[in-house]
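Tutorial, part two.
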Amino acid sequence: MSDFFIFQEELKLYAEDGSVDINGNPPLKQKTGNWKACPFIFANECCERLAYYGIAKNLITYFTNELHETNVSAARHVMTWQGTCYVTPLLGALIADAYWGRYWTIGCFSAIYFSGMVALTLSASVPGLKPSECIGSICPPATLIQQAVLFSGLYLIALGTGGIKPCVSSFGADQFDQTDPSERDRKASFFNWFYFSINVGAFVSSTLLVWVQENYGWELGFMIPTVFMGLATASFFFGTRLYRFQKPSGSPITRACQVLVAAYHNKNLKLPEEDHTLPDGYKFLDKAAMISEEDDIHDPWKLCTMTQVEEVKILLRLFPIWASGIIFSVLHSQIYTLYVQQGRSMTRTIGSFEIPPATLGMFDTASVLITVPIYDRLIVPFVRKFTGLAKGFTDLQRMGIGLFVSVLSLAVAAIVETVRLRLARESGNMAIFWQVPQYFLMGTAGVFFFVGRIQFFYEQSPDTMRSLCNAWALLTTTLGNYLSSMIVTVVACLSGKDDGWIPSDNLDKGHLDYFFWLLVCLGSVNLPVFVFFSVRYTQKKV
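Running the prediction step on this input gives:
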């Protein structure tokens, strides 16, 4: 009997969630994972996000000032590129879940990312690879070769980020043993501080890097984030011996397809009238787990396990929650595009110093750096007293709050633009700092929505599909950027290019406030739809 208890105590020394250490052995809790592995992951994410936002935050200015693009064309390029950065995670997630695992996927795609940063830096540094400066009002456009080098760099970055975005947060969460209650509670706090580390990098980009780009040139402005991308990769590998690794478990897409094919193959079978052993909802998929007399029970395309069936049902239940993030992404994308262009039309000087309009993005990230500690240390303990939940709000409640605050941000932006236009037409000026509340509100919205979404999709997705589901969640950002680009294009065409809502050159001649109110309407419709599906959501069973 004493040997049995000794054996049980020895088991508690190791993580019991199926993870392994770098040598393929069960990981010792005292030597691997938990918070001790997180500094390397946080440093990696902070440096990588500094590199990414060092490009994204002010890219629209690079297109308009250096490539001589119009406001609409530059906004379309930026939105399309950012959208692509959130499509490629589907590829990276599939490779991670099915073949390489999250660790090696992050490492290999980081190399691709770095090569894209180098190409982008060269396109801004080598004289023959960037357009000539304007001579008076004549601004020569970029040549085909110049565009090829620039967009090759940008889309290599987009490909590289595809292996990082869906894997890093899941890899970090893997460091906490789901079977250990104490480690499981710490995981909720991990997601808060993971998002905090993202915004430390974004804050540096919004302040220092934007200032460098506007005052010291784009060569240095792109070289600095390239160096930080190299540091991000190095930081990640430094923590290797402390990590816990989840083994890849085969293609999740194949598993899902097997359920659909088997359900169709068994479509003529009759379901039991009352069989409480089968998962609830989407009963037609239950036929994939029914045995037919003439079928080969070893053929996975004709007979699936109940676990497989439930995995597909989880994806279907997640769909309406996932779709609600598309409109949020439309609203959130404005901080990189039309918020910047709005700021460019405002008074930006303090004495002899001119404030780059993209610098106001610092208040978006500053609000995150302020809100995350307050949320984690004050709000969560307070709300916990009423809800009894270790993390305070449920993930869906947290996402709903974020959706509401994002609508407030656009409403404030619309009001500011209305006042700015009135002053501009009366030969008056409006200081750029009136934009601070709209940036601050959007940053707060991100703390609630993005962190809630990361945790929700990690916990609710099937264990074998966590990277893929994380990438699927990120896809809403892609669709949001593409939808935003489409809305901008349609509005420009319908309202006119020179005197419409979004004029090509001078926003004083347009009505950007109308465009912002249009987005407020979209967000106001999206919120009750999200609430409707949230209250009917069924938690996962596998």
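The radius of gyration is 25 Å. In part three we will examine how such features are distributed along the chain.
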